[in-house]
Amino acid sequence: MTRTEIGRRIRWGCFGLGVLLLQGCGRDGTLNSGLTPGQESRSTASAKPPNQGEATAGDMLVVNLGGGVQLEMAWIPPGEFTMGCSAKDPLRVPQRRTAIRDGFWLGRYEVTQRQWAHVMGTNPSLRKGDNLPVDSVTWNNAVSFAETLESKIGQLHGIQMRFRLPKESEWEYACRAGTTSPYAGNIDEFGWYRDNSEGTTHEVGLMKANQWGLHDMHGNLCEWCNDKSEYTRNCRVVRGGSIYSTADQCRSDWPDSALPDLGGYEGIGLRIAADGQPRAVPASWRKRVPDSKIAPAVASRLATAEMRRVCIQHLRIIDAAKNQWEMENDAASGVSPTRDQLLPIMRTGGQWPACPAVGVYTINPIGKGPTCSVSGHALD
């Protein structure tokens, strides 16, 4: 797919398809978790926890799907949080205190193609790869996956686990993971979005996890929620943004929706939830969420991208100073450096005596202190 073709698909929202936002599709009308009835498809009432072996924050469940395929789920403890954003925020999603009365399990990763194919026997994804998130999933098929998974676990292990899609309030609560900021941290370290994805999905788990051990809650693929949209019965809620989304569209509080039978669009996937604390779970399934680290290859790639971004800023400063000097002195001031000339100086630090306008332009290495400004043009 060319950049031009991708551009045509991302005109608005995390999908870039105007049809997704037709008929007033928006966020769901649920005010909190478990406080208003009317959720459709699968009940989200959680089972009562057992008397022993109860899960706590930081616990992980490694569900054996058979055939060497596993599903890692993190425990999301009950609690309250402020859903939405401040009235001063440009997004202007109304804030409300929301209660998550019962803890639940949530997939640490978006459902992968290997997991989907193992459970469903098919793979609808446009981009193929066992550890890539399954894409091009309709809401109806996502619900079917949860139902089939539940049946499969029951048959394999004789364990009753109720799998489902998360509520929108549960999704935002889990994404925030006890924080009040729009992101789990630096968006470039936590999610694949328009500025760093290069227009393609990436294997799950390469970015950092949030405080509750969840990866890719920002970007990679939009994720289906169980809820209907607030304004029409024809749309269902999606959250998280995708590789086509801006950083804003990947915020924890960014609302979006899509037609439930929308098929063939590679920007939507899912993350599976499970109710309560399952009884008689094998001890081998219970583990602790490991420390989160960004994959070394991704870290190197992001560092290179950051180097290039700052290099462009340096070049703009030099060009601005050069142009200003030429206007004030009505004379040429020399040639500005190229990116290839400037990058080596940025790696080690040094000076660029390019022209009278710049004079001696001192550049500190990335992360080694502030860079200088020239003729009033400061590096951001």
Summarize the structure.
The chain has 380 residues and is α+β, with helices and mostly antiparallel strands. Helices cover 24% and strands 17% of the residues. Helix 6 (296-329) crosses helix 7 (339-348).
Describe the structure.
With 380 residues, the chain is of the alpha+beta class. The protein folds into 2 domains: 3-292, paralog of FGE (formylglycine-generating enzyme) (Alpha-Beta Complex); 298-363. It has 7 helices and 16 strands. It has helices spanning 3-9, 113-120, 139-157, 168-176, 187-190, 296-329, 339-348, and strands at residues 59-66, 69-76, 79-83, 96-100, 104-107, 163-164, 191-192, 218-219, 222-228, 236-239, 256-258, 268-269, 273-275, 286-288, 350-352, 361-363. The protein has a 6-stranded antiparallel β-sheet with strand order 6-13-5-2-1-14. Strand 9 and strand 10 form a beta hairpin. Helix 6 crosses helix 7. It is elongated. The relative contact order is 0.16. The model is unreliable at 1-52 and 366-380 (pLDDT under 50).
